[in-house]
Amino acid sequence: MLDIDLIRKDRASVEAGLSKRLEPSEVSRALSAIADLDKQRRELIGEIDAERARRKEEARAFAAAKAAGQAIEAGARDAKAALAELEERLAQTQRDLDSAMSVLPNLPADDVVAGGKEANQVVQVYGEAPVIENLRDHVQLSSDLGLVDYERGVKLGGSGFWIYTGWGARLEFALVNWFIDRHFAAGYQFMLPPHLLLDSAGYAAGQFPKFYDEVFHIAGEEGERGRFLLPTSETAILGAYQNEIFETDSLPHRVYAYTPCYRSEKAGSHSDERGTVRGHQFNKVEIFQFTSQEDGEKTLEEMVDYAEGLVRDLGLHFRRSLLAAGDASASMRKTIDIEVWMPSTGKYKEISSVSWAGDYQARRAGIRYRVPGSKNNKFVHTLNGSALATSRLVPAILEQFQQPDGSVLVPEVLRDKVGTDRITKPSKRK
RNA sequence: GGAGGCUUCGCCUAGUUCGGUCUAUGGCGCCGCACUGCUAAUGCGGUUUGGGUCUUAAAGCCCAUCCCGGGUUCGAAUCCCGGAGCCUCCGCCA
Question: What is the ipTM of this complex?
Fold first, then answer.
């Protein structure tokens, strides 16, 4: 949610910013509709407040008269109906304003350019693409080495599900646990939230109504509140703090969470997204920060550097991209992707997306902080980043570290946790 | 699943019987000031949150806010209905 005050005071800059993401004519139309609704809303509030003040005064006079032992006529009933009518109009105006505001995306940061995927900029490339003999892709490697059982996964969950098996399961969880250790050491607070969230948390986090159809909903019993399976733990972290006020000295507040992510992914699959690259359930460790307004943007750099440190310590070749306005998610001011090299496709694939939302998410979720010396609490800035999505990291590790003999070297930092230095073909055994 | 108790300003708490200057008592914490050589102690004052209005800004003023949503009433923390959460007891259970 954007700041309505900014639209009032500096509509031109809002219009310019939003035009990086939307049709300029559409932006201008939406903003004038909002300006009208906002004006209407404030007029109604003025009228309602005045009427309430009048009635309060009347009730006081009544009480005073009664105390003095005088009888007094009861107030007019039609005044009450008139107030109710004004209140109904305000409620409607407020709903219209909210829905008009909630479809507006965030203002892209100054250095974020207009355009879609094609306008993304590669900022930096790290390491060299390894030269690989006997190149196999990750789907073949994981079948050969018995790391992922796609067929049995489909038997259990249907298309889009898989089972990690053997060394594959070890590798997957070694990664998750290694991240958990690293984030803890880096001062993030560990959170294991519920996977099933109330719809209200989805709205608070700003992911509904937009992504309502892209998550799995749980049909409850009659009269029960709706729930859904979380599509990312970002939803849970943000929702957990809705309507809270941070004390000044508790910022920045760093949190991380591990959960599987459940997504309906109704769109068709891509040829370069085979195997575990895109599915209905994948593991991700998410890092998140709540900061003051001053610290927001620089914290983005800090988090990207931090996430990259993880990929570098794994020994992978990757690059950093600054996303164009149209390719970043709508609630973000700026998003930086870390993309890992996939030898089989010759492309880089996103394994982490680190974003700075400014106060856009906080405004929706009602998350503020106290400002010393001021009575006005401000909205925090929120930042989130995957650190990292393991279902894409495992394929990258398999492909980049495969050996000519078909085995895969385990990244050094994971060897203790996986329990081997090298993953080889399992001996025949059912 | 059944029965009962409870939810008030950061925390604890008074107020709910019998509706009326109740945003609401007192304590703790916190902030400011005074006093003291420093600390401590003491005294005085301030301290829910959101919206509107006004202002360069601050202050002020107005409205809402006693778990949430409705209702009754001139008037609701207080009465009625619905919901959520917490606690206790009973039952059931991978």
Answer: 0.86
